[in-house]
């Protein structure tokens, strides 16, 4: 089986590619802007006709799209998260219409959750950030493309190699810098929001199952830990692993984003039915692996 992985050098993409390489009778093809990629693809800028030629040359049985942007201005986010998946779908219809497409979406597409009520895939999507809105646009492009496609809506990934752009990787980096200095003070924003954390290795397992599972899959599947956890618990867990003896100064006045989305949790029942997938790692295991590997540059397990 030939599987083309886009965005394989990113945080999620590296784990997905590593998991796919472990599958028997599978050849993994890397696609991206890097000169080291097997196929040069820039979803944010390539025309669909150009993408179609590249896809025809790759001749994949499945495509896993891990490419996207989590930060930047609205234009950057739209180009990577909305325009990119739309162009990819147009190219697939032309060059590889029978290939399975697995697209990594985000739980941010749902927007605010109701405390105590895990959100299902049929819930209305009401994103409140440019990131969530552009990821939702990408999901709509995929689900309306008349392809053999599934969108995996990922919760908040945690685990080895977490980038410093996100809270887990940034917190690990801060703790490594602080060491065991009892006078150290780490100043953070509001940590009262609840999030659905999922181990990045479980995300990779879900993507591999979605790429290789026979038969038609539901258009959207939630991939998360299935539990809403206070962000404060993640910070405290990393601090314990670091042996941190200083003080965490939390701005309890809150932030606009935390106030708008104070609680998120995904119902992962459908993924269990469709893929036979359940998370194999809890938050403690994810934090253990993150701390052991280092912040943003550790080896994959």
From TrEMBL:
Cited PANTHER family: DTDP-D-GLUCOSE 4,6-DEHYDRATASE-RELATED
Any Pfam family hit: Epimerase
InterPro entries: Epimerase_deHydtase (IPR001509), NAD(P)-bd_dom_sf (IPR036291)
Protein name (database record): NAD-dependent epimerase/dehydratase family protein
Residue runs in coiled coils: none
Family: Belongs to the NAD(P)-dependent epimerase/dehydratase family.
Residues in NAD-dependent epimerase/dehydratase domain copies: 3-224
Highest taxon listed in the record's lineage: Bacteria
């Amino acid at each position: 089986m030939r599987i083309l992985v886009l965005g394989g050098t990113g945080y999620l993409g590296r784990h997905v590619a590593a998991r796919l390489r472990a599958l028997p009778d599978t050849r993994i093809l890397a696609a991206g802007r890097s000169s080291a990629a097997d196929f040069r693809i820039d979803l944010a800028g390539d025309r669909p006709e150009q993408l179609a030629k590249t896809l025809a040359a790759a001749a994949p049985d499945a495509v896993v799209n891990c490419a996207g942007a989590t930060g930047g201005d609205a234009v950057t986010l739209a180009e990577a998260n909305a325009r990119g998946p739309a162009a990819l779908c147009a190219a697939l219809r032309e060059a590889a219409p029978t290939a399975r497409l697995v697209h990594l979406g985000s739980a941010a597409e749902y927007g605010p959750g109701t405390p105590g009520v895990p959100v299902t895939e049929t819930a209305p999507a009401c994103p409140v950030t440019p990131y969530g809105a552009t990821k939702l646009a990408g999901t709509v492009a995929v689900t309306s493309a008349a392809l053999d496609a599934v969108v995996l809506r990922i919760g908040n990934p945690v685990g080895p190699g977490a980038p410093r752009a996100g809270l887990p990787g940034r917190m690990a980096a801060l703790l490594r810098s602080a060491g065991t200095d009892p006078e150290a003070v780490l100043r953070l924003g509001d940590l009262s929001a609840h999030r659905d954390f999922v181990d990045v290795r479980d995300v990779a397992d879900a993507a591999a199952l979605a790429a290789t599972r026979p038969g038609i899959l539901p258009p959207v599947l939630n991939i998360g830990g299935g539990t809403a956890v206070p962000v404060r618990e993640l910070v405290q867990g990393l601090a314990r692993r670091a042996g941190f003896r200083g003080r965490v100064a939390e701005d309890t006045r809150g932030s606009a984003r935390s106030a708008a989305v104070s609680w998120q949790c995904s119902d992962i029942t459908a993924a269990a039915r469709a893929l036979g997938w359940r998370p194999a790692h809890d938050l403690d295991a994810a934090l253990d692996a993150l701390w052991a590997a280092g912040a943003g540059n550790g080896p994959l397990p």
